[in-house]
Amino acid sequence: MKFFIDTADLSQIKEANELGILDGVTTNPSLMAKVGIKGTEAVMQHYKTICEMVDGDISAEVISTDFDGIVEEGKKLAAIHPNIVVKVPMIKDGIKALKWFSDNGIKTNCTLVFSAGQAILAAKAGATYVSPFIGRIDDSCWDGMELISQIANIYSLQGFETEILAASIRTPLHIVQAAEAGAHVCTCPLSSITGLLKHPLTDIGLAQFLEDAKKFQ
Ligand code: E4P
Question: What is any one GO biological process for this UniProt entry (predicted)?
Answer without folding.
Answer: carbohydrate metabolic process
